[in-house]
Design goal:
- With 112 residues, the protein is mainly α.
- The protein has one domain.
- Helix content is 62%, strand content 0%.
- The protein contains 6 helices and no strands.
- Helix 3 crosses helix 6.
- It is elongated.
Length: 112
């Protein structure tokens, strides 16, 4: 039984440790891979608009607008505006997508 408690996973950590602990203690990526910062920036640049569109399409926007017009709230007080604004805040557009793309491309070029 003591032998079973000493078993380690491929990262050298005991099997009974929760996954979040394993992630924090993992080794950094090899030097030929982009840094986590660059990977995060790539993910943001490539997904923000897609994530917005998915959420916009899940809404019945015409009904939201109609209901806001009927209740006299077609503006920042209306549900349509609040819903769209929340999506935009949750998935913000990069402040300068062109500069961000250049930063990513430059970082990737250094790895070659």
């Amino acid at each position: 039984m003591a032998e079973e408690e000493n078993k380690l996973d491929s990262m050298g950590l005991p099997f009974d440790q929760p996954p979040e602990t394993k992630m924090k203690e993992s080794t950094p990526p090899p030097p030929d891979l982009p840094s986590q910062d660059i990977l995060d920036k790539m993910h943001h640049l490539e997904t923000w608009s897609h994530e917005r569109v998915l959420r916009y399409n899940a809404l019945n926007q015409y009904e939201l607008i109609y209901d806001d017009i009927k209740s006299g709230k077609l503006g920042e007080d209306g549900e349509w505006f609040k819903t769209i604004n929340k999506i935009k805040e949750e998935f913000p557009k990069p402040s300068d997508p062109v500069a961000l793309r250049k930063e990513i491309d430059d970082a990737l070029a250094k790895l070659e």
